[in-house]
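Good morning,

Both structures are done.
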Amino acid sequence: MRLTFITLTFGLSVLTVSAGKFRVIREWKHLNFTWPTRDTYQNALSVGDYVPENNILTGIKHFEGHFYVTLPRMKKGVPATLARIPSGPTTDTAPLLEPFPSWEMNRIGDCSALQNVQNVEVDPKGQIWIIDIGRTETLVEGVVRCPPKLVIFDIKKNMTTTAYTFPNNVASLNSSFLYDIVVDDTDAGYAYITDNSVADPGIIVFSVKDHHSWKIRHAPSMRADPTAATFKVNDVTVDAPINVAGIALGPRIHASGDRIVVDEDREVFYSPLSSLHLFSINTSVLRDEMNGKMDGEYQGNVRDCGIKASQTAGMVMDNKGTLYYTLLGTNSIAKWDTHLPFQSGQRLIARDQRFLEWPNSFTFDQSGNITVLVNRLDRFLYNRLNISEANFRLISSYTGGRSYLYDQGYDYNVDPNITTSTPTDESADPDVLPASDNDPYLIPQPIPEHKEQPETTKEPNPEPEATAEPEPTTEPGPTAEPEPSAEPKSSAEPEPSAEPKPSAEPEPSAEPEPSAKPEPSAEPEPSARPEPIAEPKPSAEPEPSAEPEPSAEPEPSAEPEPSAEPEPSAEPNSSNMDKNHMSHDQMTQEHMNHTTDIGEASKVQQSSASRLFSSFIGVIFACLFFSV
């Protein structure tokens, strides 16, 4: 799909897409914070507690006037791992980040504080669910600070309501990496968390009521696909097998045949980052702790939904049942109406190399807007982040949807077009096809093979012209004039249309001429003209004089008219050229013969005059002689 950009106030941009317009609402070259004092800031810089190029945004969620963003401590020098910024209109498009809930709650080495947060979720009650990996500097050697934990913090009350440390058999102290989280409010609440641990990937389930957790494992769908571990984002090659990452919770309200069904058992969608497949598993399977055992009987309940166009980092479900997900290798965002089959229901909604370089996560606000966090993680991973240029963006568009957490208030419309058809100035959204060798977004379209089509399409035209040739003979000169009525005469009369010379070009094809030769073969010299008759287009240039000549062709004996016919020979036709030259030579010879006859006649006249003069002189001399 093609994206266009226009300049906005404050130097922001707009991406025009099929679902509306994505506006760049925030943009940073590097990230900085609301430091308590200037001295604190200077000290953090000097001792390495704050290294600007080591700070990156990954997760985002919106709640009541703020965006809550995460900054995982993958490298040294990240002073806060969770922060927030105002979400309303502002002239400050690169705001400072306010550590959340406080600087103290982001203190490194304090296990009651946050150590390394990759993603969060905010429920309708205003509780922010925070997954803390516990280890820091995970992109380097890794430093174990604290065990992995889940913290539920009430934003309105400004207090922690739940803090749960995962047991080592669920989330390993040394290898777990809590990546993403969705919240299910069924039966007092559950959290489903992806752990893309290299050693033990899976989906962790936490029960609020039981204050207990377990892990569901399924290697075929949760481990990286080796064939998808290497891919390219612009000029950066990403080569790392990354296990299960993005996760989304389907709507409880869905269509079943012709009926609308409200079901507490919902589908959970997920995908390893290093995979082109989207998988799903039902929440009834996840909520059964017995399935947490290896090789549980749930194995057959994992569904492969289908293939995506590229690898995916983040995904989110809205309250209408539309799944939004990122496509890293194509710098794209796509959506899928989950009420339709995956392969036919996918739609590409935005694509741009510059503004969508590694779209990482999503959030909805209460007004129907979706916001995408873009972070250039591909450059960050390989130390190629240039903090003198824009690296992090929040891009927003109106969709009319809200978070999946608000689906109880959604009035479902059975019309399947509700999410797949959106106003656009282009044609319908293009299908998102699988990547690899036939990915239309990664390879150029094949160039059509050259065919001799023009000649074959024009040959039929000369043929009717050949049939039209007799017509001029039946309707001598007049036929050339009634060009309108000459339309039936096909290309013979289209001399007006022949003037465009395109039609004259077909005639240059020597092919029709041979066919023309046989017909006028009975008329020696004019036989070279039947083609020009079909081509009187050039002959039309020499004015009517050329047009009468076709009528003269039926009477080749008509004296100089044949000589006038050579005028069409002005057409640069290969075989005709020779014939025209021959006729010209013949005409020249005839002219020479004619001149010779005149000379001979003048000689006869001169000889008879001299004889008369001699007789006259003889008479005079005789008279003089006799008079003497």
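Second structure follows.
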Amino acid sequence: MPLYPQDAHDRLWISWTSKSWTAISTDTSIDGFKYDVPSLVLQTAAIPSTTNDSIDITWSASDQSTSFYVVLHFCDFQAVRNNSLREFDIYENGNLVFKDPMKLDYSDTYYVWYIRTGHTNYNLSLKSTTRATLPPIINAIEVYTVLPVTWLPTDNGDGLGWAGVNCSIDYSNIPRITSLNLSASALNGTIISDFGSLIALERLDLSRNNLSGNIPGSLDQLVSLTYLNLSGNSGLSKILPSGLQKKEKDGHLTVIFDGSPSNNVTKKKSSKVAIIVPVVIVMFLIVGAVALYFWFRKKKKSCLKKFPTPSYLRLTFIMYKCFFNNSLCSDTRINPPTDQVSPRYVGAQGSSMVVDNPKDNVVPEADKKEINIGKKRFSFAELKLLTNNFDDPIGIGGFGEVFKGRLEFGDEVAVKVRSESSSQGIQQFLNEVEKLSRVHHKNLVSLIGYCMDGNQIALVYEYMQKGNLQDWIRGSAHFLPWKQRVRIAYESAQGLEYLHKMCNPPLIHRDIKSSNILLSTTLEAKVSDFGLVRDCSGTYVSTKIVGTPGYLDPYYASTSQLTEKSDVYSFGVVMLEIVTSKSPILQGPQGSQHLTQFVQQRLSRGKIESILDPNMGGQYNLNSVWKVADLALKCTDHPAKRPDMTAIVTQLKEALNLEMSSMETSSVASEDISQYVGYSRDDFPIGGELHSGNFEMTPIKGMPLPDYGPVAR
């Protein structure tokens, strides 16, 4: 099975034979011509066992729409008499593929290629012409399926996920947007009627913008809409189109104006309000008079700041909220102020009473700052509410402790609260939030919002249900097979490539480690913890050294010069963790040793099995493991020799394809049979037949690809 470096394109070649064939071979090296076919492959061939027989190769497709890209390789290395002629026609399902026959000269290399579709069974046959004196011969064949692109899941220019947009996942149909969150996105003007075209939309959040005018009637077309938030748009009309009014009245739609569901209530509720409002007014007058009396007394003593917020003001506020929660605003929840936490903003959806901080009547500068980054700004009271008073800690990092929470509509989140020991200031925090708001990629943990409430600072991220990679590869409670390990490395590398290559200016993570790679319920990998992320618009950035021991780039540590290659080093250490399931710093009788040294010593003796996680039990493709281990060591080499993240993504994808191919071909016969079949992923020969699935085609040097042909790797 020649692979890289014997095959420059790292194709996997599998031996293939038939009882009606005879295997022949030569020791003479053969040039692979334009397709770079390894000499080891072309040095073997098959001819019919009987002179008058043909060479037949068959494969099947799951349906007639599957297209096949077929490449045939020939080299006649048999020494024959001068008058001998090897000439044959190529048929497929009884029809000539090429008008002219193949005529082979001794020791020359030939190739042909074609595309076929429209059948479920294919029979390729090589038959000698009437004037031929020698039987047909074939050295190698490559058969690929052409991946159809019937629809594009995203715009051609945007292959990245976008926070705030949720789509239906149904590969039998075109994806539809089901949820759209454009809150705090600095939108101006009227609501466009095009929203009515999003026919599968269930949730629409346009809150905290500067929208004005009427609500368009096209929203009546959103038959699946169940939630509409229009709060925080002072110039927007509160009159709903008739269709939305009916849906809301029937209880099928929640509409929010100014932080509360709109006032389309029944007559019964209206009469209840008519009774409650006078009672509330009278109570306010009585309590207000008492409040004024005590206020004047305290003012005379000039000691207002020494006392917490008066309890009667809290009582007034809570009674007001309770009355209206039971009538008009049953969906609005509050978190009553306490002596320990007196947030400036209390209540849900950002619309409620302002309560002064009893410890400091001067408004903090942080609360005066407002940034339009398209992310929700939470009050600290809201964070307490959604985390159940921070009762479920799930981790701790350089920024502070992390708590699990749940938003109003059930989405789980991770809340990172800045610790008192954190050195990050207000302006630095604002800069970090602004950077994070620009990051949108499927393999990066999404920032949902932030909190800047007095001295309380926090970040709110999406919650990753399966924890972090470190727990999976080092803990005893979980096990990851090699295929999943390579996939996690590949997905994480894509996230880092986005930071390095697609952000403007480029961003450097600075703290890549296995505990900062989080896993979703499907074990999809996402890079997290951007608290230390830095811009890198130049060659390098001179900065205070930060990072985690064992993952920290020695060059960066010694020079304080931060580059993208610093992240590459850290990711190389993570890949070694994935291969070995060992920590970056190993403790032994001779003292500590870095994981890179441990791996280098053993690989220099060719003993890769000695470094692998024994829990994998030999269930892996050795070439795939070698590729990842070799790549990891290159990443931890001198900075000038380290690959960039784009090259790392490419290499990891090839390693993943090797492992997937190996899983499908584990029962194939040994390599001493003459005929080889080249393929990339899912096709594998069984009993002389090629059973096909969809897989990506490896681009081959010099091959003209059709416009609708295979997807390049």
